[in-house]
Structures are given as structure tokens and as C-alpha cells.
Amino acid sequence: MAVSEASSTDSSQKVNDAAERRREQNKMAQRRFRQRAKEARDEMERDKQNQERAGASYSAPESSELDQPSNLEGLPWGGISMQHVIQTGVEREKLSQAGSQDTAAPMAGTPQAGSSSQ
């Protein structure tokens, strides 16, 4: 009986050690999970703040905001009109955005190439 008692004590010791080891592993895994989740939340918050700050850092000028230079003596064609350049750029951007929206809407309902609807 002494041998079986010793072996049962050893096996219960191993189970306790395994259970303790598993508890420690769970604690460490939970700690890592929480740390990674916190880092992800912090990064999302930083990205959000960066986007908000970046949005206010630059705005395209309106053509009406520019002063027309009065001294264009050295240029044979009279110089570049920045008002015209900006106005043309704004119009092209609007057309580009409108074209992108027009082509994106019909494509949303169509199946993509290579995909099967079976």
C-alpha cells in the first residue's frame, strides 16, 4: 500500500502542478490580451486625433481669395492666372468625384469577377 499511496500522491502533485501551471498561463494570456487590446484602442484614438488635426491643417484656397498681381511686366503672355488654375482644378476634382460615384454605384450590385454565386 505504501507504493500506491506514494504514486497517488505523486500523480495528484502533478495534477496540482499542471493545474497551477495552467492557471498561470491563463493569467499571462489574459494580461497579454488586455495589453494588446489597450494598445489597439490607444492606436485607434491616436489615428482619430491625427485625422482631426490633419483635416484642419490644410484647406484648398478658393479662387476668389487670391489677389490678382498687378505687375506682370516681365512675362510675354501676361503671366499665369492662379485664380484660373485653382478654379479649373476645383472643377476637375468635382467632375472626378462625380464620375467615381457614378461608376461605383452600379458596380456595388454586380458580382465580382472570379466569384461564383452558386
Order of secondary-structure elements: HH
Distance separating the two termini: 68 Å
Rounded to an integer, what's the Rg over CA atoms?
34 Å
Low-confidence stretches: none
Oligomer: single chain
Annotation field: number of helices: 2
Mean pLDDT across the residues is: 74
Query: Biggest β-sheet, characterized?
Result: none
Strand-residue fraction? under 5%
What percent of the residues sit in helical stretches (DSSP H or I)? over 70%
Notes on the protein architecture:
Residues 1-15, 60-71 have a biased composition (Polar residues). Residues 17-26, 36-51 have a biased composition (Basic and acidic residues). InterPro entries: bZIP, bZIP_sf, Sec_Metab_Biosynth_Reg. With 118 residues, this protein is mainly alpha-helical. The chain has a domain at 1-54. The protein has two helices and no strands. The mean pLDDT is 74.
Give a brief rundown of this model:
The protein has 2 helices and no strands.
